[in-house]
Structure formats: C-alpha cells, structure tokens
Design brief:
mainly alpha, Histone, subunit A, two-stranded antiparallel ribbon, ligase, asparaginyl-tRNA synthase (glutamine-hydrolyzing) activity, 96 residues, Aspartyl/glutamyl-tRNA(Asn/Gln) amidotransferase subunit C, 2 strands, nucleotide-binding
Length: 96
C-alpha cells in the first residue's frame, strides 16, 4: 500500500512532528513498506489456529481480590505520612 505525501503529513501532524520534504519521502517509503507487510499478514488463513495470550503452556494462578479494612491506628499512621490532607483524603499535585 503506497501512502501519499498528504497522508504522511496528516500522520506527522497527529504525532506533532514537523517533517521536511526529505523526511516525508523517507517516512512515506518506510510506512508504506510496513503497511505492505501487515497486508500480507491479513492474507494468512488463521481459521484453525487457537487464540493464545502467551507462548508458554501453563495456567495462570489468580487469587481472589479481598478488601481488608485497616484498623484506626494503621489509618492514622498512614495519613500522618501524607504531606497534605483534605477531609481525610490525601492531596497530591495535579499531573495533567
């Protein structure tokens, strides 16, 4: 599948990249090759292939999540380590 310069410019704008014409041509060729390989993979018959989540042959051993309440001393000790509290909640700086 051959991509156009306009498609490469659009993709680069989504990635917040400012590409010059030389870089556009390089990425155009590389991305077109990658999409060609992906297209080849879509032609493989996988009807009789079982789904896998890993290549190892073992079962996952999972335990049930159990919620355990803390006693009052554990709560006070932990909240005492927080730099800032608001109504019993630990306050943190905004990340976004």
């Amino acid at each position: 599948m051959e991509l156009t310069n306009e498609q490469i410019k659009y993709i680069s704008s989504l990635a917040k990249l400012n590409l010059n014409e030389e870089e556009i041509n390089i990425y155009k060729s590389q991305l077109s090759n990658i999409l060609g390989y992906v297209n080849q993979l879509s032609e493989i018959n996988t009807v009789d292939v079982n789904e896998t989540i890993n290549s190892l042959d073992f079962d996952y051993v999972l335990r049930e999540d159990v919620v355990e309440d803390w006693n009052e001393n554990e709560k006070k000790e932990t909240l005492g380590l927080a730099p800032k509290l608001d109504g019993g909640q630990i306050m943190v700086r905004k990340i976004l």
